[in-house]
Amino acid sequence: MHKTRTKICGLTRAQDIDAAVKAGADAIGLVFYPPSPRAVTPEQARRLAARVPAFVSVVGLFVNPEKQEVLHTLEQVPLDLLQFHGDENPDFCASFGRRWIKAVRVRAAGDIETAFRGYQGASGLLVDAWSPDKFGGTGERFNWNLIPAQRPVPLILAGGLASDNVARAVAQVRPWAVDVSGGVESSKGIKDSSRMTDFISEVHRVDTTD
So what's the pLDDT on residue 131? Predict the structure, then answer.
């Protein structure tokens, strides 16, 4: 039986970290992109990361950062994985000596295959909805039929997921992991503990019945 991993992204409060861990999240995401309503500073992130227990990964999300910005964050925050959501090239993503994920905003057929070829060194390829003015966090889903069956890199499904559709998403796509942010919030950057619990329960339900 395949276990679908779950990442809760865009956490900003200590109580939300605790609730995500209690709900069974495999990873939590901290956003280092100032325009985002879910952004945290390295100092805030360091305090949040300190609450995360062993065997739960801490992922840092960046959008077209300067290299020094990432290095400065890594000096302060014990990140397990880096997640790049902008137009970063593979060499840049790999230059920090950390495992990394590359996000691709899916607009048309072939976008995912192109990303698989270009980012073969990634630990995961996160597929999200395309937006002309947002680097993720749109709350919109895309056409899952555009996702290829052949996946040389583990596929992480994002974009418009919530407890009412994630079971269907897992059953159809069979991703390595799912990534949720807005779908488990009461307001932007404020997570809802019951929604996180329901979301992860739905993921596990599909795994159990597989």
Answer: 61
Q: Identify whether 9 is a catalytic site residue.
A: yes
All structural domains of the chain with their residue ranges? 5-209
- Determine which one of 9, 26, 93, 179 is catalytic: 9
Residue 151 · residue 196 · CB < 8 Å: no
pLDDT along the chain (210 residues), means of 10: 92 98 98 96 98 98 98 98 96 98 90 94 91 56 88 95 95 96 94 98 87
Based on its alpha-carbon atoms, the radius of gyration of the chain, rounded to whole angstroms, reads 16
Residue 184 backbone dihedrals phi, psi, to 5 degrees = -125, 30
Instruction: Check: CB of residue 177 under 8 Å from CB of residue 203.
Output: no
CATH 3.20.20.70 fits 5-209, yes or no: yes
18 is catalytic: no
| CA dist., res. 172 & res. 177, Å (int) | 13
- Which residue has tokens 């950062």? 65
Catalytic hit among 91, 128, 164, 210: 128
